[in-house]
Structures are given as C-alpha cells and as structure tokens.
Amino acid sequence: MKRNSSAVPANTSNSSVFHQEMLGGFPSSTGSDFGGSKNNQQRKRGQEMGNLLCKPKYFAALAVSLLFFGMQAASAGVAVIGNPDLAMTSITAAQAADIFLGKMTKLPDGTQITVIEHKDGDAVKDEFYDKVVGKSPSQLKAYWAKLVFTGEGVPPKEYAGDKAVLDRVAGTPGAIGYVSDGSVNKSVKVLFEGK
Fold first, then answer.
1. DSSP state of 40
2. CA-wise closest residue to 139 among 81, 94, 100
C-alpha cells in the first residue's frame, strides 16, 4: 500500500507556525511577524495572564469571584410593576398570579387591568412564572391553549424585553407588567417584588 505523497510530515517548524498563528503572529521569510512589537507585547501579556491563572491562589480567587457573581445573577428577582396612576400601592403574589393568568381583570377600585406580558423565551418571563405563578413555560402554554379553545380567555399581548414592558406600562392607564428588579425605574410603580 502506497502512502499519500501529499501528506505533510509532522515536524517542529509546522508546529511552531501553528502556535505562532494561534497566538496572533504570522511568520514571514525574515523571521519577524507582521504585527510588529505590539503583537509581541499582547502575546507576552497573554502568556503572563495564563501563567498567573496556573497558580493555585490566583485560580482559586478567579473561581470564587465567578461563583459569587454567578450566584448573584441567578438570585436576581422580578418586580411586578404598575402604571404610576394606579390607586393600588401593592399586590400579593396570589393577586399577581391571578392577574397574569387572566383570573383577575379589575382592581378593587374598579379599574380595568391591561396586562403587559413578555415574549416567550425572555428569561424574566420564565423566572416570573416559576417564582410567582408556579408554572413552567409548557404549563403556561397549555393553560392558555385551553382557555382559548374553550373561549374563556385570550393571552395578553407580548412585548420583547424589559424596556418595552416598562414603556408600555408607564404609558397605559391600568397597565400591570413585570420586569427584572434591576430594570425598574421611576416611570412605574412597584406593586410586588418576587425574589
């Protein structure tokens, strides 16, 4: 059986070319790289950073800080917000669930509620329905499909992202929505915070 003559034999010069390309420099016939000294400085800094991360104490510090910030992001809450002109100043988790499931359509003072909903796939929507309403995305779809099929309800109009929900709630009389608690601003009134 003949060997393929086009195969490149493994040698150190090909290996070093590969490593130089991966580090950002490209060899030329003169032995210098096209990037000049700036690329060399960047490569050196990258190697120094890699060396630092190989030391146990620096690696541990990085791991702990990533874990801490990851836990903070995961524990971010949601805030149920209302139009600033609403007479109501707060609601319970049960009332929030009833509002977003279409079971409560008017406030105690008779104000008609306009529900401002997030689009499917928004992380805040999944978090809100999990923490406050107690439904998964598939359970929520099944719930609304049943109401639509029986003629008992229609899901609320959906908006993409916290900014769109904030703007809509602020500008719509009787509106209630929810956003990530870090997105709340003075244009709306916080009615409930779910952590």
1. H
2. 100
Architecture of domain 78-194: 3-Layer(aba) Sandwich (3.40)
Angle at 51 between CA 46 and CA 53, to 5 degrees: 95
Residue 189: strand pairing partners: 82
- pLDDT tops 90 at residue 99: yes
Structure-block tokens of residue 2? 């003949």
Domain residue ranges of the chain, discontinuous segments joined by +: 12-74, 78-194
Contact by Cβ (8 Å): 112, 99: no
Question: What residue has token string 């991966």?
Answer: 22
Q: How many whole angstroms separate alpha carbon 143 and alpha carbon 155?
A: 10
Which is higher by pLDDT, 160 or 62?
160
Q: What pLDDT, in 10s, does the model give residues 13-64? A: 444 444 444 444 444 444 444 555 666 666 666 666 555 555 565 555 555 4
